[in-house]
Amino acid sequence: MIAYCQKLVAELDEEDNNYSVEISDPILLSEKLIEVTLLKISKLRTFVKEKGFDKPEDEIHFFKELKPKIVSKLIYYNAIYKIETRRPYGGERSIKKYLNNELSKLKRFFYNNLEFYKYYRTNSSYLDHKYFIRGNFDIKLNLDTFFFESDQTFSTSHDYKVSKIIANDLIQVYLEDQLLSIKRFPGLKENKPQKVKWTASKSALVELIYALSAYGAFNNGTSDIKIISRLFETMFDVELGDIYHTYLEIRNRKINKVKFIDELKEELLKRMSDQA
Questions:
Q1: What is the pLDDT along the chain (276 residues), one digit of tens a residue?
Q2: Is 108 exposed, middle or buried (0-12, 13-18, 19+ CB in 10 A)?
Q3: Are 31 and 81 in contact, with CB atoms under 8 Å apart?
Q4: Residue ranges per domain, the chain?
Q5: For residue 127, what is the DSSP state?
Q6: From CA 264, how far away is CA 276, in angstroms rounded?
Q7: Cα distance between residue 162 and residue 158, in whole Å
Q8: Contacts of 122 (CB under 8 A, 6+ apart)
Q9: What predicted TM-score, i.e. pTM, was given to this entire model?
Q10: Alpha-carbon dihedral angle through residues 128, 133, 135, 136, given to the nearest 10 degrees
């Protein structure tokens, strides 16, 4: 069990490093890593249900030490995704206020769970049989509603809370690093270009996205079309909906399947001719 879990953690760390090199946008990176982490958790859940534990000490070790190493990554990536998708487009002051507010949320979680923080941080174990054995929960031990809705064949009353503590430490580092970058480069955020809105048709944008994907313009042609479309939606403040359906409509056109791309070519050549 320990070896298998450590193998999954190592694989996840390696994929994290690889995708971090390939994908610079934190939103797209988080989306991809959430997907990868969910697959690892699914494998882990299946393994636990099939193999089980030989003794209570093994179960406690798994839910206190091993599972949180992976679940904390899922919590972290999801938090970064939310932070970045909700980040304001205002100046330095509004961004700092936003980031500090996110830090305040972490502090509230800390104070709301202060007793368990003390227990976990001091490596205490006298309540491990209640915190980290399935089915041994104690309603008096400050349980989250989330626990009652979770898969209790793969959860204990406090393993998620451990994951949350680990993730919050990482989120705090991320937020403080963002604030530090503003301090180091004052005014940089204020000079950020205003958001550009897509005003041509949505089908035109889908046509362009598929053309760029077919050409291999992103990550040497390895990027998923969903990730590319999400990037364009974010950049151009547009919701494309079911891009596959739109693509099928484009592909089934009777006349001029790539109408928008042809028009782009004509307009660019015209501008070049006019400026000659």
A1: 778 878 888 888 888 878 887 888 889 999 999 999 999 999 999 988 888 888 999 999 999 999 999 999 999 999 999 999 998 877 788 899 999 999 999 999 999 999 999 999 999 999 999 999 998 877 777 777 667 777 888 999 899 999 999 999 999 999 998 888 887 655 544 445 556 788 888 889 999 999 998 888 888 777 788 888 888 888 888 888 888 888 888 888 888 888 899 999 998 888 888 876
A2: exposed
A3: yes
A4: 2-191, 202-274
A5: T
A6: 18
A7: 7
A8: none
A9: 0.65
A10: -20
Question: 118-121 — which CB contacts under 8 Å span 24+ positions?
Answer: 120/162, 120/165
DSSP string, 38-83: HHHHHHHHHHHHHH--SSHHHHHHIIIIIHHHHHHHHHHHHHHHHH
Identity of residue 39: L
Identify residue 48 by its one-letter amino acid code: V
